[in-house]
Design a protein that fits this description.
Elements lengths: L20 H17 L12 E2 L5 E2 H16 L9 H16 L7 E3 L3 E4 H19 L7 H4 L3
Antiparallel strand pairs: 1-2, 3-4
Length: 149
């Protein structure tokens, strides 16, 4: 019987991909910027959303809150790690996106396309990794993804 092949050796990660305190601080600043732009007006139909440079609601930008804030939620060393505020803001974004889907399940990009599969794909580019990170964290599944409202 032949011996099993040894697993391939992988190169040690380079410093380029290291998660440094400086990168965490820069990411935290980016989260702070996004959250400061998020609509906090609970009486507004746009509550939880982000607006684009024209002042129009932007679903892809709103989805960006998810990937960035969830990264902070699960990243030890982040100011947003396990933060109730970041978790709440993620919930706001999830709720916003759920309220603004078309009957076909697409988003409307008010500057370019209505009922747009392409813009929905751009939003999913941020939503999918956020869901994966939220499901694979020591915090357990983030309830905002496992228990949609």
């Amino acid at each position: 019987m032949a011996a099993a092949a040894a697993p391939a050796q992988t190169a040690a990660p380079s410093g380029y991909w290291s998660i440094t305190p400086q990168r965490i601080a820069a990411h935290d600043a980016g989260i702070d910027s996004l959250l400061s732009q998020q609509s906090a007006d609970r009486g507004s139909r746009w509550h939880g959303g982000l607006f684009d440079e024209y002042g129009l609601p932007n679903p892809a930008g709103t989805a960006g809150i998810l990937v960035h804030a969830v990264t902070g939620l699960v990243l030890p060393g982040s100011r947003h790690h396990r933060s109730a505020r970041a978790r709440e803001r993620v919930q706001w974004a999830v709720d916003y996106l759920g309220r603004h889907l078309t009957a076909e399940g697409n988003v409307d990009s008010l500057t370019t396309n209505f009922n747009s599969p392409a813009d929905t794909a751009f939003a999913m580019h941020s939503i999918a990794p956020a869901v994966a990170m939220g499901a694979n964290t020591a915090m357990g599944s983030l309830s905002v993804f496992s228990n949609p409202r």
